[in-house]
Amino acid sequence: MKNLIIRMYGVYMNLLARIAPSKAAEKGFLLFCKPFRIPINQKQKEFFNSAEKFTIDHEGHAIQGYKWGRGDQKILFLHGWQSHTYRWKPYVEALKDDNYTIYSIDAPGHGMSSGNFLSVPLYSELIENFIREHGPMHTIVGHSLGGFSLLYTFHKYPLLQVGQLILLAPPGEASDFISVFQKTLKLSPRAMELIIDHFANRYDVTPDYFSTKRFIKSVNVKGLIIHDEEDNEAPYHYSLPLHHAWERSRLITTKGFGHNLRSETVVQDVVDFINDARLETSTAQPLSLQQERL
């Protein structure tokens, strides 16, 4: 049934591209940026209720935020597409102590936030505003689209006050999202041309502008990349050139954890990286470049 509905969407968009091009362009763009909200269960609500909750007004969206702890070192977690704050539960539980203040936000159209639209520029504006209001940040951790949007934020504002970045399963090119969208709906070249033109008119750049190879040139802070060789959603091969272009980065390659990287070892790698950086800060003895690249 789900595949039939998807196929019907594609047929409708292809027909609309022929008889009402401007309408097809707008509808196709909105569909591309529309997340399908995952229902929140009772177990997840209980975790959310363990936090100090707050709301941010951003571009007409009520953004749900969460806060744990009151330590001097601030950490921000950013989830990916069709996810929400619950994915960070094991990380929050492993990091909760007197040293850290931990934040997480649900992106527009996700979790407990309002809306039904999310794009990289919209997510990036939210990230930038949050850092400026609540920073400086000791560490920001982004999974998938969260990490991609974080890099785009640094591309625009390289002097944001952030100590280090951790990217989990980062995508490489926005053009890949476009290709998957077209193949899934079996959209015609004409329909895709209209959607891409609408995107370019809205953001003044085409989707292929959004690339980690371009964004990473603006990142000067230390970082960690964790990516699984069997990631079927954000191909691993993008993280190799990303790591080499990012001089102050470390790359951890996993196998068998997929795109979500749900593993106690991944949690521990992230926690260790954060704790090590805190200790370096307290002793004022940064790692050497050779140690950072490992």
Question: What would you note in describing this structure?
Answer:
By secondary structure, the protein is α/β, with parallel strands linked by helices. It folds into two domains: 1-32 and 176-209, no CATH class; 47-173 and 210-293, Alpha/Beta hydrolase fold, catalytic domain (Rossmann fold). It is 46% helix and 18% strand. It has helices spanning 2-19, 21-32, 42-49, 89-95, 120-134, 145-156, 174-185, 189-203, 212-215, 239-245, 264-283, 289-293, and strands at 52-58, 61-68, 73-78, 100-105, 137-143, 162-168, 222-228, 249-254. It is globular. The N and C termini lie far apart (48 Å).
Oligomer: single chain
How many strands in all? Answer: 8
- Mean pLDDT across all residues, rounded? 93
Q: Helix coverage percent of residues?
A: 40-55%
Question: What is the CATH T-level topology of the largest domain?
Answer: Rossmann fold
How large is the radius of gyration? Answer: 19 Å
Helix/strand class: alpha/beta
Low-pLDDT ranges: 283-294
Looking across the biggest beta sheet, what order are the strands in? 1-2-4-3-5-6-7-8
Distance between the termini: 48 Å
Instruction: Tell me the β content.
Output: 15-25%
CATH architecture of the largest domain: 3-Layer(aba) Sandwich
Whole-number tally of structural domains: 2
Number of helices: 12
How does the major sheet shape up?
A: 8 strands, mixed
What is the CATH homology-level superfamily of the largest domain? Answer: Alpha/Beta hydrolase fold, catalytic domain
H/E order of the elements?
HHHEEEHEHEHEHHHEHEHH
CATH C-level name of the largest domain: Alpha Beta
**What characteristic shape results from the CA principal axes?**
globular
